[in-house]
Amino acid sequence: MTVIYKKMTQTQMIVVGYLLLILLGSILLMLPVSSRDGNMTSFADALFTSTSASCVTGLVVQDTYLHWSFFGQLIILILIQIGGMGFMTIGVCVAILLRRKIGLKVRGILQESINSIQIGGIVKLTKKIIKGTLFFESIGAVLLMIRFIPEFGIGRGIWYGIFHSISAFCNAGFDLMGENGAYQSLIRYSDDWLVNTVIMLLIIIGGIGFLVWDDLSVKKFQWKKYHLHTKIVLSTTGFLIIGGAVLFLILEKNNVLAGMPVKEQILCSLFHSVTARTAGFNTTDTGALTEGSKLVTMILMFIGGSPGSTAGGIKTTTVVVLIVFVRANLMEAAGCNVFNRRLDETAIRKASVVMCTNLFLILTGTIFMEIMQPFSLSDVMFEVFSAMGTVGMSAGITRDVCMASRMVLVFLMFCGRIGSLTFALSLKGHRHEAPIRKPVEEITIG
After folding, report:
1. What's the angle, vertex CA 150, arms to CA 144 and CA 156, rounded to 5?
2. At a CB cut-off of 8 Å and minimum separation 6, what does 335 contact?
3. What is the pLDDT of residues 360-408, one digit of tens each?
4. pTM here?
5. Residue 117's pLDDT is what?
6. What is the dihedral of CA 307, 283, 410, 141, to 10 degrees?
7. b/e sequence 127-138, b meaning 16+ C-beta within 10 Å
8. What angle (nearest 5°) sits at the alpha carbon of residue 217, between those of residues 215 and 218?
């Protein structure tokens, strides 16, 4: 085992770590004690649920409340927490508590896992991540208990507050509201400002990324002193939330929002815009959305959150880098500049690879699922975008697709969580191309 460990690259360690986490979760969820009726759950359903929880997605084939017992729900919550923070972060946390020395290779894997720019101070950053996560989840749980304890009683109210706070912060989208109807998510709270606000804030805080936390904690409200990464993340996040909400309100005003008071329409629009970028909760019927709203939602799911966060998608920075790159080329500018800083060419190449790889996986997954079953193209694409972006929103067909299509969604959720680029690099291993440059020959483009 030691020899294998030494031969593995950092990306391979991350991939294997998540695979082992998913497999362990699947085994535990198969146990009779994990289901509400005391029967063993099929491996396929357990695997899908374990993958969805570990990859903080939220797509389900069994209602979380109706099918899983308290033990099963606890296993799901633990998988969400480990998947959201990153299994390496949890491992380092345990090592710190046991006062074990953190080696250079572990620091490197941790840097890759949380997308840190530099390896220096990575253990200190990890401690901040753990403390910040526990702080925000605890505050969120207490605030949600204010609403849930009067409704469900002390025991269930406390559990519901903890479960939904962790699920929201980790951008997972799992819920326990199935007793009033399966797969209802938070529809019954569409006009509840407390629940909506707390869930939205937890999703946003978890989705902006640990690196942004660190920058904000040091520089407070001094915008000019923020790192370029922080400026891009905050400005893009704000634009996507407001822009997505406005478009959703316009497109759904006479559909799923019809008959609601104006304040509730605004609240639902804001919630949808926030949750569509990677969380998976919903306060409106996702399956009843107009085609235009589905398209906007798919774009938001594709973009996702920010690097080094609990969110999925190609990330906000990737989109900004590509937009700046295109603009610079159209304007024939000297360089790709944003916020008075020039982007490094490595970032541009990496953004291009991430965009193309994700699009390739999404298109391949969509074609494969359409071959398996003739569902509506928009519904299939919605599920595929949701899986790849680790969002968890559903048009309602996930539990009806065949086994082969479910495995496609499992694979996409896995790639979406570890990152398509990380998965691709893990297949490459230690192989290096010979440093030979071929002769140049021009071709026509466009």
Report:
1. 70
2. 328, 342, 343
3. 999 999 999 999 988 889 999 999 999 999 898 988 888 889 999 999 9
4. 0.90
5. 63
6. 60
7. eebbebbeebbe
8. 70
